[in-house]
Amino acid sequence: MSRNTCIILPVLQRLMTKAGENIHLARLRRNFSAIMVAERAGISRNTLRAIERGDPNVGFGAYAKILLCLGLEDDISLLGKDDILGRKLQDAGLPIKVHARRIKKNL
Question: What's the pTM?
Answer without folding.
Answer: 0.74
